[in-house]
């Protein structure tokens, strides 16, 4: 009976809980979808002006992420923090490189992208409108191109892969960041198109069958 119970637990489907948006869950959704995992893609409704009464009522269910989401439920346990979830899923389903060094490099690119996002969030957070407009212009004209020059120089992989010779967490992270993170997508595109390795990663990831399949299958959401 114990054995039977073990088996049942192992077969409990993975559930990824987030809002009905891409945000902090999408990189994990890409990996689960590409790996062919039959996961439950649970989405709390959220309006264009960010109202989400259903989640507010259910918040207390998610102490593991300090009352926030995403949450990954696996084997009856809950895991919080989107980056932790992405790394766990990457390791479990083969998106974290082929050895420990490649795993560390995948992590490194994840952190590189986080640093650039953090720098951008400082610009977004400027409250004085005139100052913010000037800082935004500078961000896309100078700051982002500089960051992406440095990111480019850090890429160890070749042929459209950031690490190794197959699609990994690093590629999905870089692709998703460069193509969907910024409201000003044209500005971002101009900046990464100046960088051959980053452009190759974006192109190869966009053309990956599994990436295309998830993008065709996923719900259409405004963010
Ligand atoms: N560092 C956390 C941040 C989690 C987070 O801020 N989640 C937001 C959604 S993107 C949330 O649940 N907000 C609702 C709330 O705080 O009430 C992570 O990466 O998981």
UniProtKB/TrEMBL annotation:
Any one GO biological process: glutathione metabolic process
Residue span(s) of domain GST N-terminal: 12-97
Domain of life of the source: Eukaryota
GO molecular function: glutathione transferase activity
PROSITE patterns: GST_CTER, GST_NTER
Chain ranges of the GST C-terminal domain: 99-223
Record-given protein name: Glutathione S-transferase
